[in-house]
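Lab notebook, bench 4. The sequencing result for the construct came back, and we need a structural model before the next group meeting so we can plan mutations. Quick request posted to the team channel:

Model the 3D structure of this chain.
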Amino acid sequence: MNVRWITPAVTAMSRDGHVDLEANERIYQNLIENGMDGILILGSIGEFYAIGLEEKKQLIDRAVSAVNGQVPLYVGTGHMEIDECVNLSNYALRKGARAVVVISPYYMNLPDSAILNFYGQVARNIQGDMILYNFPARTGYDLRPDLVWKLAGNYQNIIGLKDTVGDMAHTRAMIQKVKKDFPNFQIYSGFDEFFGHNALSGGDGCIAGLSNFAPEVAAGYARAARTDDLKSMCLYQRKVDELMSIYNVGQQFIPMIKKAMILRGMEMEPFCAQPMREADEGETEEIRSILKQAKLL
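Done. Here's the predicted structure in token form:
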């Protein structure tokens, strides 16, 4: 199975809510050293929505320098304004990003015609490849398989999709519809626990967050899938299933992911952009228990 596990990296921040460039570089190096197949910065877990344009550019610059072609680097460039999305996308692509990952405008519930118009304008005006980002829980609407099929057929630089939907049937239908005519179109699940199902269904793996604090688990699972080692895949799936409970420790999971990274030795602060709060004492103990149960502490 030709699949990959790409880490949507958190963005390390200082107490005042600004990007900590040195800590982020340490995060990228840890992911690379532990065998991850790629890194996505400025995704949802990377708090793209709370970071200003200049700091995004600084982070892109540092990430490109730190990763230095060791693994593919992807950059989230979604923005409510098409021109801003295009401009940031081209900045990231010029700097060396493998592709940009673009969530469509949120807040307003868009009809199909508006979705096609948005992605069409971006695709025509960027100088590189783009991965669509489907996250109905945040945008209020779904990139259905027929819409993605149409976009894949109309624009050669739309090369894939991250499908963050809590129902693997949706991603399976996407694989069946789109890959039938566009076999090189990449389809990733946005939930860690769907990695194996995605791989076995003919997808391309996942872009999912547990790998921030358990990269050796995610990378091992991906290697097992690439060598068709079903026995190891089963063991890794059970490990992932254990770790999924970290998403339920607090109502906001990003601080929980950051705390888990710190408990496992990552040198960074636990802070997020306001109004998110860091994990409290009780949540930290619950995270510690999950990591111990999974033999990661």
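The first helix runs from residue 21 to 33.
Will bring this to the meeting.
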